[in-house]
Design brief:
This protein is an alpha+beta fold. It has a single domain (2-129), classed as Electron Transport, Fmn-binding Protein, Chain A (Pnp Oxidase, Chain A), CATH 2.30.110. The chain has helices at residues 2-11, 48-55, 83-92, 96-99, and strands at residues 14-20, 23-29, 32-35, 38-44, 58-64, 69-80, 107-121, 124-129. Strands 1, 2, 3, 4, 5, 6, 7 and 8 form an eight-stranded antiparallel β-sheet that branches. Strand 3 (32-35) and strand 4 (38-44) form a beta hairpin. The longest helix is centred in the first third of the chain and has 10 residues, at 2-11. The protein is globular, with a radius of gyration of 14 Å. The model has no long low-confidence stretch (mean pLDDT 95).
Length: 130
């Protein structure tokens, strides 16, 4: 799991794909952390991505390092409304307090489950399941 987190941080941005009634939706993300041995992502509950994930928790994350390696992660996102999980994300990514109004209860975190990740490096692929 640390390898995945390190890779996502190295890339800076990763792309999160969800589904809605119009088909796949993809957008860049940048905040990720590990809490209680799970990978967490976050977003505002007023965003379309939040509505899409709560309707269909299957997601795909793709990141590319700008050189010759990339990763694809398929998972289910599970909403975790505990303050401890939110605090862990904020501790890992303090700039989130500049983006989200923490008093307005709009900040949400999800952990990833049923994960499988594939690292691609040139012609070599490596599968990791959690």
């Amino acid at each position: 799991m640390d390898r995945i987190l390190d890779y996502l941080h190295k890339c800076g941005a990763f792309y999160l794909a969800t589904m809605d009634s119009d088909g796949p939706q993809v957008r860049p993300f940048g905040s990720v952390c590990i809490f209680e041995d799970k990978i967490y992502i976050c977003m505002g509950n007023y965003k379309a991505v939040f509505k899409q994930i709560t309707a269909d928790p299957r997601i795909c994350i793709v990141a590319y390092d700008g050189a010759d390696t990339w990763i694809r992660i398929n998972a289910k996102a599970v909403l975790d409304q505990r303050q401890e999980a939110r605090d862990a994300m904020i501790a890992a990514e303090p700039s989130l307090t500049d983006i989200y109004d923490m008093e307005a209860d709009e900040f949400e975190v999800f952990y990833l489950t049923d994960m499988n990740a594939t690292f691609y490096e040139g012609d070599v692929t490596e599968e990791i399941e959690f």
